[in-house]
Amino acid sequence: MKRFFCFLFVLFLLPVVSFADQPSILSHYSLCFDARLCTTGKGANPFDYDMLCLDVYFTEDDSLAYFSYAQFFSGTYMANNLLRMTVAQRDGGIYLIDGQGSAIFCWYDENGTDLWMRYRDHDLCLHPTVPFSIYEDWQ
After folding, report:
1. Do the beta carbons of residue 56 and residue 31 sit within 8 Å?
2. Which H or E run contains 83?
3. How confident is the model at residue 86 (pLDDT cuts 50, 70, 90)?
4. Looking at the whole model, is its pTM more than 0.85?
5. In the chain, what are the domain boundaries?
6. Can you give the pLDDT at residue 10?
7. Given the DSSP bridges, would you call strands 83-90 and 25-34 parallel, antiparallel or unpaired?
8. Residue 47 contacts by C-beta under 8 Å, 6 or more apart in sequence?
9. Quick one: pLDDT band at residue 12, thresholds 50, 70, 90?
10. Per-residue b/e over 62-89, b at no fewer than 16 CB within 10 Å?
């Protein structure tokens, strides 16, 4: 019987301990940009992709965020993994800094709802996403 209780203790304690250091996601901002609509004369596109998807996840830890981007070009999906970013607030904005020291500058709009990002010399507006509720959004 002692072995059984020990087994149950380990079984229920292991998931709690293994997920204890994962911070919760507080907010998620997203953008999906279809660059195919921006073609100019003779079908030229000023961007090096057909579609761009950006996501920023802010955590309960003020100094930690996650950044993900995906690009599509001629039917090919080019993406990175979810990058762990350090968050630094400075100059009235937010810097997302990756492990190599590269930074992405972000700021909130005047209403404080949308997140603007300077990505590859373009200013892009990311919109907040609505959290999924398993009770209200599941059918």
Report:
1. no
2. strand 83-90
3. very high
4. no
5. 23-128
6. 44
7. unpaired
8. 35, 38
9. low
10. eeebbbebebbeeeeeeeeeeeebebee
